[in-house]
Amino acid sequence: MKLLDLTIGTRHFYLPADTDFTELETRITNAVRDGGTLVEIPTGHPHPTTALITPATPVFLDHLEVTDDTSDTDELHSPLDFDISTALWST
Fold first, then answer.
1. Calpha distance 21→80 (Å, rounded)
2. What is the Cα–Cα distance from 17 to 23, expressed in whole angstroms?
3. Confidence label for 18 from pLDDT (cuts 50, 70 and 90)
4. pLDDT value at position 47?
5. How far apart are the first and last CA of the chain?
6. What average pLDDT does the chain have?
7. Cβ distance 84 to 73 under 8 Å?
8. How many beta carbons lie within 10 A of that of residue 53, not counting itself?
9. What one-character DSSP code corresponds to residue 80?
10. How far out from the chain centre does Cα 36 lie?
């Protein structure tokens, strides 16, 4: 599955799968060329989200490939992974 990730400054937005990438890229580019304007971000939420995009705003559009991790394997992939079902809790 592909995921479209938009980063504006320090804010991350995971965009809906039906987002028109080319149209969003054009709106962001035009905002920069115009010296800065508000751009509506398609977040899939019922309320609109807008961001002020200026020539100084760092913007990243990334296409991410997400793997299906719905399998029932007990493999932990990072030292930070923690299986809470095996934790011993004292009361």
1. 34
2. 14
3. confident
4. 87
5. 42
6. 81
7. no
8. 22
9. T
10. 22
Domain boundaries, the chain: 2-67
Single-letter code of the amino acid located at 14: Y
SS3 84: helix
Judged against a pLDDT cut of 60, whether residue 84 lies above it is answered with: no
User: Distance between CA 91 and CA 10 in Å, rounded?
Assistant: 40
**Alpha-carbon Rg of the chain, whole angstroms?**
19
Average pLDDT of span 60-68: 79
On the question of pLDDT at 54 being above 80, the answer is yes
The closest of 62, 71, 68, 80 to 21, measured between CA atoms, is 62
**Residue 46, token pair as written in the block:** 């019922």
Q: Which of 17, 44, 18, 15 is nearest to 28 (CA)?
A: 15
